[in-house]
Design a protein that fits this description.
Length: 429
């Protein structure tokens, strides 16, 4: 079977349709930004360098507990998923990594998988463990928790699973493990909070110690779901405490959907970066809970304020490693690849806007306690239409000036349907 290949020639031809509109728009913006003292070439370079991992589970249509509507031409194998990321990466030059969830994505032929990924310039980002679903091979259950379980033999199964995930990641060249736990309770009194947290801490320490020396552990938090009364790692404070308990290479992972309504996420970002403990980032957007909607589709200003702290932290907190960026969004009704292209665009827009913030002016205005001017400075950056910068960055990287328009005019989904069939069921969630 022929998998979809996007080469420079095809993309050049696509770009020729947009270049005449793009160039003057870009030059006009670049000129006005230079006048304000922005080093536009630096911004373009930073945009070209940003790489955001695509989670394997976002390549098929997501579902809810009420059902799932599959999308046509969905990837049925890990190979298919990697080649889908290859399409997105070729169009944007921003998706040079894939994040696997084990056991959903266990490779059969490691060499073939590695070769395929390398041929598409795709790296293996953090590997994710799954102790929120029982596996057929288990003779015990995670029904009452995994790493927190009162039964040490269940904790042992969950720890062993994490060690196997590390092994899988090692074989692929990944160098980080993300742990998200569904552990918690549904009713008051059901669980002893202290015991559950203590067990979790010991289990995580064991996993941390078993990682290779150059690996990082990312500990994800979430306030509720699937448990609805309590969650063991419910917030960034608990995650940070556990990361500090494990050691230097353990970090907190922020998933934008994992906060109660109106939480000031940008302040959490600032605090974690000050401590050098922001390890990973899952982008998505939400209206109500962990909705996993397209990045920037609901609260683009909040996304900008978060990026503003990320940019500040990347410049002022050398003790914080460059965070591992990932999109953790997947939706029911859109073409998953178009959804991811929109998410990447939103991430790049907010990043570019944050790079335009007049940091010196802002600091000065803060010193003067000039709240009006502080807001003016932030919103001047936020209200800039930075899309010509993104287009230029993609053009300079031989990607598509207009990814979605090109994806559509190249009929990529139809080709995938021809290769994979109309009624497909994505492996995974
Ligand atoms: C949990 C989560 C976590 C999981 C993924 C499937 O809500 O954000 O990152 O691994 O979703
Ligand atoms: Mn997540
Ligand atoms: Mn989530």
């Amino acid at each position: 079977k022929m998998e979809m290949k996007l080469n420079a020639e095809i993309l050049n031809e696509q770009n020729s349709r947009f270049i005449e509109t793009h160039k003057p728009e870009y030059h006009f913006l670049a000129q006005s930004l230079e006048k304000k003292g922005v080093q536009v070439n630096d911004v373009i370079k930073k945009l070209q360098e940003l790489q955001v991992a695509i989670p394997s589970w976002a390549l098929g249509a997501g579902g809810t507990r009420f059902g799932r509507f599959s999308y046509q031409g969905e990837p049925a194998s890990l190979e298919n998923k990697i080649s889908d990321v290859g399409i997105i990466h070729a169009l944007t030059n921003t998706a040079g990594a894939i994040s696997l969830h084990i056991p959903w994505d266990i490779p059969k032929d490691y060499n073939a998988i590695k070769e395929l990924a390398a041929s598409l310039d795709i790296k293996f980002d953090a590997v994710n463990s799954n102790t929120f679903q029982d596996q057929p091979s288990m003779n015990k259950s995670y029904r009452f928790g995994s790493l927190c379980n009162t039964d040490s033999s269940v904790r042992e199964i969950a720890i062993q699973h994490n060690l196997e995930v590390i092994d899988t990641g090692k074989k692929l060249g990944s160098n980080s493990l993300t742990v998200w736990l569904a552990d918690g309770s549904n009713f008051p009194g059901q669980q002893n909070f202290q015991e559950a947290l203590q067990n979790t801490k010991e289990s995580l320490k064991h996993i941390y110690k078993s990682m290779p020396d150059d690996w990082k552990l990312f500990i994800e938090y979430k306030p509720y779901e699937p448990n609805f009364y309590s969650t063991v790692i419910q917030d960034w404070g608990t995650s940070l405490m556990l990361a500090e308990g494990c050691g230097q290479r353990a970090y907190t992972l922020v998933d934008l959907g994992h906060h109660l309504p109106n939480t000031n996420i940008e302040q959490i970002v600032a605090t974690l970066m000050m401590k050098g403990k922001l390890g990973g980032f899952h982008f998505n957007d939400s209206k109500y809970g962990d909705d996993d909607l397209t990045v920037g589709s609901v609260k683009p200003y909040a996304l900008f304020l978060i990026w503003n702290e990320l940019v500040y932290g990347m410049e002022n907190n050398p003790n914080n490693p460059s965070p591992a960026w990932m999109i953790d969004a997947s939706h029911n009704i859109k073409d998953p690849l178009e959804d991811l292209l929109q998410s990447l665009e939103a991430i790049q827009i907010a990043y570019a806007q944050a790079l335009l913030v007049d940091q010196k002016g802002l600091q000065e205005a803060q010193k003067q306690q000039d709240a009006t001017l502080c807001q003016e400075i932030l919103q001047d950056a936020y209200r800039t239409d930075v899309r010509p910068l993104l287009r230029e960055a993609r053009l300079c990287s031989s990607a598509a000036i207009e990814p979605i328009a090109s994806y559509r005019s190249l009929n990529i989904r139809n080709q995938l349907i021809k290769e994979r069939g109309l009624h497909t069921v994505a492996s995974g969630l």
